Amino acid sequence: MYAFAQRKDTTVIDEPFYAYYLKQAAVKIEHPSKTDILNTLPQSKESVIRLITAAKSENVFVKGMAHHILETQPTFILPWTNVILIRHPEKLLASFSKVIKNPSIADIGVKKASEIFQFLKQHGKTPLVIDSDELLKNPKQYLLKICKCLNLPFSEEMLSWDKGGIKEDGVWAPYWYKNVHNSTGFAVQKTSSQAMPMHLQPVLDEALKYYFILKNNILTNN
Predict the structure, then answer these.
(1) How far apart are alpha carbons 211 and 101 in whole angstroms?
(2) Does residue 17 form part of some domain?
(3) What is the extent of the structural domain holding 83?
(4) Which stretch of DSSP H or E encloses residue 153?
(5) Positive or negative CA dihedral for 172, 177, 178, 184?
(6) Which residue from 146, 154, 151, 148 is spatially nearest to 218, judged by alpha carbons?
(7) How does pLDDT run across 162-175, given as a tens digit for each residue?
(8) Does 220 fall in a domain?
(9) Is 91 in contact with 192 (CB distance < 8 Å)?
(10) What phi and psi, each to the nearest 5 degrees, are found at residue 194?
(11) Ordered DSSP codes for 49-116
(12) CA-CA distance, 44 to 71, in Å (whole number)?
């Protein structure tokens, strides 16, 4: 999201389905800034889609979480160019548990992401799957490949940003975006090697089977 926010031809929208998800789904865990999210974002799917389609820009980049899409047949995403970003579930759970201590498989999105992948593939709209580890091998080379797949010109501006966040950040940013707020570009974070709590091993075991469905379809960086 931060990379695409640097482009002059692109409007970025941060997790517009978040309030819809919190309002409509049976969310068992307490999300930080829940009240602010519900007060600042539309709570119906139709309203979210209107928000997205109303964006006046050559390109619209919607950063979302897979599990915020509640439908099993999300036909409304078929006209879009869809990209799925994956991260190894062990790293994901180690990071996620710093904010929400006991996430379930439904809370981290990897199962839903694999379902969305299969849905799009079945409809002849196989999404681009990108991998955070692949990206960090050589960010410029990977972004060049991503832009080519999306039929977009690459911009050097995508490689760096100012410290402290971007105006497009959602109200949840203070809880989830601390690392990126301290960054000025793509780099391995010190927290990426933190240990996953052992009580989340059953969640990891389940997550891995969905992760590898996606991993087998990634855009490689070589």
Answers:
(1) 21
(2) yes
(3) 2-215
(4) none
(5) negative
(6) 146
(7) 999 999 999 999 99
(8) no
(9) yes
(10) -70, 150
(11) HHHHHT--SSEEEEE--GGG---SS-GGGTTS--EEEE--HHHHHHHHTTTSSS--HHHH-HHHHHHH
(12) 13
Question: Do 122 and 137 touch, CB atoms closer than 8 A?
Answer: no
221 in any annotated domain:
no
Distance CA 199, CA 34 (A): 25
Closest by CA to 1, choosing from 23, 19, 22, 16, is 16
Q: Which residues pair with 12 in a beta bridge?
A: 61
Inside any domain, residue 86 = yes
One-letter identity of residue 107: D
Burial class for 116, CB neighbours closer than 10 Å (0-12, 13-18, 19+): buried
Q: Provide the pairing of β-strand 59-63 with 10-14.
A: parallel
pTM above 0.85, yes or no: yes
Cβ neighbours of residue 4 closer than 8 Å, sequence gap 6 or more: 10, 12, 61, 158
Q: What is the amino acid identity at position 155?
A: S
Please count the structural domains in the chain. Answer: 1
Q: Could you read off the pLDDT of 176-200 as tens digits, one per residue?
A: 999 999 999 998 866 566 899 999 9
Q: What is the CATH number of the domain that holds 127?
A: 3.40.50
List of the chain residues with pLDDT < 50: none
Q: Which two tokens stand for residue 52?
A: 């997205």
